């Protein structure tokens, strides 16, 4: 199984994993230049895409870390179907998140080193370190929860440095910003080709990938794609049609089916290609979704607050996991039958809502330092 967010404004915004300047800014509206009378428009399709991505991140963790750990005895393979669905979304979820992150990072990497180093690189590393310590403490209270956690000082040091934890999106953004800034004047081919090879090598299992290193290797290419292809991505989203949505969704289904049929999940180069198809579909779908404001505006609102969901949802899920699997496993067949289909959706909604409530509570307690590097006016996560 393979492991695994029209123009944006001149000051790129927000998966955070979420998720997640990546920019996870809560109130600022990202806009599109060039509209009538100079009035900006929101890049709602991109925010909506991030909103969907963070929901899928939480849903995946709910399914693999809680739902599939319950002893279901309902006589139908619904749990397996949820697991299979989550796996089919692996080429979409984080590659799309990082592509959007790259789009929003395009202007940021052009700023002076001191600005990038302070506002982006140090900001992401700070958030990663702070929340790694919080996760380590909270997860100690849920020793049976199935996720990577440090159980010693050496393990914590390893997660801080070379083997990122489940907060790896923040860690990755710090590294990707550093690299993108360092090579901004280099020929793009000399940057993109090695990144594509690294993604293929990581997906094929040709490198040791303990913890979440696989995600680091596989997703750099998508961050760079968003960074370098921003104008093309914006045009693609601005001109998305229903026909294009049908074609891209069909292509995604076909490449998934072909990959499964021949067992090519770990063939060299296959995962990045499938993910490119998935991201193309995701951008098209998000752009078309913006035609339905009642839904897209809610997803866009969620997409602008991915950071608190990304960093808080795992401890929330871990604590809920201590309470739920035992009683649910003990239900009779009728009781479980009422829960088995909708449980992942309900728990995803609950975990997301609790995460946002915790965030509001922390802000009320003036704990803004948990969501931004002190001394920096705002930290926006490029995704």
From TrEMBL:
Keywords, A to Z? Answer: Cell membrane, Membrane, Transmembrane, Transmembrane helix
Q: List residues traversing the bilayer.
A: 48-70, 90-109, 121-142, 166-183, 245-264, 270-289, 301-320, 340-358
- Highest taxon above the source species: Bacteria
Question: Where's it mainly located?
Answer: membrane
**Where in the sequence does UniProt note compositional bias of the Basic and acidic residues kind?**
11-21
User: Could you tell me the membrane topology recorded for this protein?
Assistant: Multi-pass membrane protein
Q: Name one GO biological process term.
A: enterobacterial common antigen biosynthetic process
Q: Which InterPro entries does the record match to this protein?
A: Acyl_transf_3_dom (IPR002656)
Q: Which Pfam families match?
A: Acyl_transf_3
Gene Ontology molecular function: O-acetyltransferase activity
| The Acyltransferase domain, residue ranges | 45-358
Q: Where is this region: Disordered?
A: 1-21
Q: Name where it's found.
A: Cell membrane
GO CC, alphabetical: plasma membrane
Family indicated by similarity: Belongs to the acyltransferase 3 family.
Spell out the protein name for this chain.
Uncharacterized membrane protein YcfT
- What organism is this sequence from? Micromonospora coriariae
Q: Taxonomic lineage per UniProt?
A: Bacteria, Bacillati, Actinomycetota, Actinomycetes, Micromonosporales
């Amino acid at each position: 199984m393979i492991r695994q967010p029209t123009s944006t404004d001149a000051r790129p915004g927000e998966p955070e994993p979420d998720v997640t300047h990546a920019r996870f800014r809560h109130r600022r509206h990202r806009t599109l230049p060039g509209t009538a009378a100079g009035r900006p428009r929101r890049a709602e399709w991109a925010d909506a895409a991030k909103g969907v991505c963070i929901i899928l991140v939480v849903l995946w963790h709910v399914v693999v870390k809680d739902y599939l750990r319950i002893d279901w005895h309902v006589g139908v393979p619904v749990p397996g179907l949820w697991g299979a669905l989550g796996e089919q979304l692996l080429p979409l979820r984080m590659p799309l998140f990082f592509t959007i992150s790259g789009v929003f990072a395009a202007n940021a990497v052009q700023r002076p080193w001191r600005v990038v180093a302070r506002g982006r690189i140090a900001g992401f590393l700070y958030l990663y370190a702070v929340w790694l310590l919080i996760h380590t403490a909270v997860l100690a209270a849920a020793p049976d929860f199935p996720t990577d956690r440090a159980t010693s000082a050496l393990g914590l040091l390893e997660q801080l440095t070379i083997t990122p934890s489940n907060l790896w999106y923040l860690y990755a953004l710090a590294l990707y910003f550093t690299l993108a800034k360092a090579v901004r004047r280099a020929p793009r081919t000399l940057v993109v080709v090695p990144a594509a090879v690294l993604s293929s090598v990581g997906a094929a299992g040709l490198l040791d990938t303990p913890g979440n290193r696989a995600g680091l290797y596989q997703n750099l290419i998508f961050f760079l794609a968003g960074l370098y292809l921003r104008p093309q991505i914006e045009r693609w989203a601005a001109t998305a049609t229903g026909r294009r949505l049908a074609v891209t969704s069909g292509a995604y289904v076909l490449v998934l089916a072909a990959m499964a049929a021949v067992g090519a999940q770990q063939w060299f180069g296959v995962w990045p290609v499938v993910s490119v198809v998935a991201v193309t579909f995701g951008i098209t779908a998000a752009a078309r979704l913006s035609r339905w404001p009642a839904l897209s505006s809610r997803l866009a609102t969620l997409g602008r607050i991915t950071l608190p969901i990304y960093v808080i949802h795992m401890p929330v899920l871990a604590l809920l996991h201590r309470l739920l699997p035992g009683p649910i496993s003990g239900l009779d067949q009728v009781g479980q039958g009422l829960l088995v289909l909708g449980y992942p959706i309900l728990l995803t909604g609950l975990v997301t809502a609790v995460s946002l409530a915790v965030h509001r509570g922390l802000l009320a307690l003036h704990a803004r330092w948990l969501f931004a590097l002190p001394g920096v006016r705002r930290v926006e996560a490029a995704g």
